Amino acid sequence: MPNRNSLLLLFLALVTQQAFATPEFSRRYNVKSCNTCHTVVPKLNERGYDFWARGYRPDPELNLERESTFPLSVWLAGRADHRIAKTSVDPKTFFNKVELIAGDSIGDSLNYFVEWRALSLEMNSDGSLNDRSGRFEDLWMSWMIDDRWTLTAGQFRPLQQIEPGRKISVSQPAIFNSSLPGRDDGNKRLTSLRSFSTGSRSPGVSLGYQSILGESAADGLFHNVTVMFPGEISLPLTREARIAASNELETATKGVVLETYYRRGMNSIGVHGFVGDNRWMASLVGEYNVDDVYFLGGVGLDHVDGKNDILRSSLGVEYLPQFEDSSWRPGVGFRVDAVEGLKPAYVPYLVLGAPNDGNVNSLLQLEYNGQSKNERLRLDFSIFF
Amino acid sequence: MRYLILLIFLGLCTPVVADVDPNDHTEARAFVKAAVLEQVEGHALSASTRDLLLSADDEGHPLSFIPDCPICLGVQDALRELEVGPDDEGLAAGLSAEKASTRTSSLARLVRQAVQAKLATIDDMQQRIEMAEKLKAGSEEGQRQLARYQSRKVEAYKMMWSCLMCDAAAKES
Q: Which of A8, A90, A121, B47 is deepest in the core (most CB within 10 A)?
């Protein structure tokens, strides 16, 4: 199987250099480099944050012209996964992601983002693969009511300050991995969808208000209220996915997420919390940038009635140098994740993004999880076009 | 699998060979200068408006232009050669806005019109194509220069998406 997948990946990598090989946004605004909006894809820089905060529109003062383009980007990824601590589990190499992505602004006030995973595989702790092919990740539309109010509906992650999906490490920091269990009525799938994690997507409706405007559209003081519902929007493609990623939606709310944060450039500080039936969580998260060094830190508390509270914290640093005469973007990071009751995890990682020419990009991520008795090495290779 | 990944990665990073010598931008710079001067022939700018357009930050980086960009240098050459007098209302109204980004986009519109008009005067199709290629090479050099200054984290260019002068010059070519 790996051979067939490898050949497919090679074929796609070669043909896309001649085809429509450009991510949608850079094609649409004739941008010459992925680094216009990203430090290392997918991590945003200040211009990227500004474009995102304007609802996928460039600063109107720049008078950039929209070009007509094929409204789709593709993200292909393969993974080598080695659970070092589990000698009974063989290392595995597999295609884990084929993703179709579309996003754009509509008129002066609407914008949308759709991210559909035609192939979605994850390795379970026993070495088997969990197939959830056909599920949607993001599927939302946003209405910028005026320059302060925004209404968003669909399926999305509730956090705005830091979008955990724009990480360059393979794993998410523990600060976004809180998992408040959902009501169990015997249905494993629904119980899982009723649980809450800040790093996971759910159907929901969010109202945002910006009380202080800043120099850039992404700068200022922001407040968001999000009502989340248990569910997952999905078009399952395989027999396994029809069980593990069935299309579900419950009308009883999961809970409410409240968030307030202040951003200036690449620095931000904020608090967010979730309140649901018999459970709540609260976190303080900050990020700070000096030259090519990016810090992330956070601490949070998870509470479930009748159980001990769990304290979570993450502290990380990334060095992402930018070279004057090269569009290659290497990076190195190190993070410590601590969750009460578990051994701390020491997570070093390396990344390399290239060629970043606005036509096609690739990303290599190598991450070691140094948690006692849970050591794990993962290598991801992605192509975006 | 790992060898295939390496092969794919190397394949993606194959450099693209430019058709035009990127070191020769003298003609593109001179062409842009002449085009802008012809476009604004008969117009005048006050010394204060011209200084505003050519203003720089504390470290000497021009606020409306990319340093070492051949297209931007052509525009700056033209501005320096413009007749100084009382502001022409049509020209100054578009150019002398407070914000650097507004000034830059107004200048870019002017450059686009100027390049389009100047190219149209070249009767020989082959010569027109060659000039267009030189402008394109100049604009690519400008975009490289912008990336260079952005990687140095120069404040004046941190929010720029691309060199608007370059976009304007290459648009009609």
A: A121
User: Peptide bond before A355: cis, by omega within 30 degrees of 0?
Assistant: yes
Q: What is the C-alpha separation between A46 and A266, in angstroms, rounded?
A: 6
Average pLDDT for runs of 10 along chain A of length 385:
48 40 74 88 94 93 83 94 87 94 94 96 91 96 96 96 92 91 89 93 97 95 98 95 94 96 97 95 97 96 94 97 88 97 96 87 95 93 92
Of A13, A31, A50, the CB nearest to B159: A50
Pairing of β A361-371 and β A345-354: antiparallel
Q: Which residues pair with A131 in a beta bridge?
A: A121
CB-CB neighbors (< 8 A) of B108 in chain A:
63
Residue A287: count of CB within 10 angstroms of its CB: 20
Of residues A261, A145, A274, A100, the one with CA closest to residue A202: A274
Question: Residue A348: is the preceding peptide bond cis (ω within 30°)?
Answer: no
Report the SS3 class of residue A207. Answer: strand
Strand partners, B65: none
For the CA atoms of chain B, what is the radius of gyration? 18
B164 vs A contacts (CB less than 8 Å): 62-63
Instruction: Decide if A9 and B4 are in contact by the 8 Å CB cutoff.
Output: yes
A316: region left, alpha or beta (phi > 0 left; psi from -120 to 50 alpha): beta
CB contacts, 8 Å: A14 with chain B: 11
Task: Provide the b/e sequence for A32-50 (b: ≥16 CB within 10 Å).
Answer: bbbbbbbbbbbbbbbbbbb
ipTM above 0.85, yes or no: no
- pTM for the whole thing? 0.87
Separation of alpha carbons A158 and A226, rounded Å: 7
Q: How far is CA A153 from CA A29, A91, A228, A358, in A?
A: 26, 40, 10, 30
**Among residues A198, A177, A202, A310, which one has the least CA distance to residue A253?**
A202
Rounded to the nearest angstrom, the gap between the alpha carbon of residue A155 and the centroid of all alpha carbons in its chain is 13
| Contact between chains at A9 and B8 (C-beta distance less than 8 A) | yes
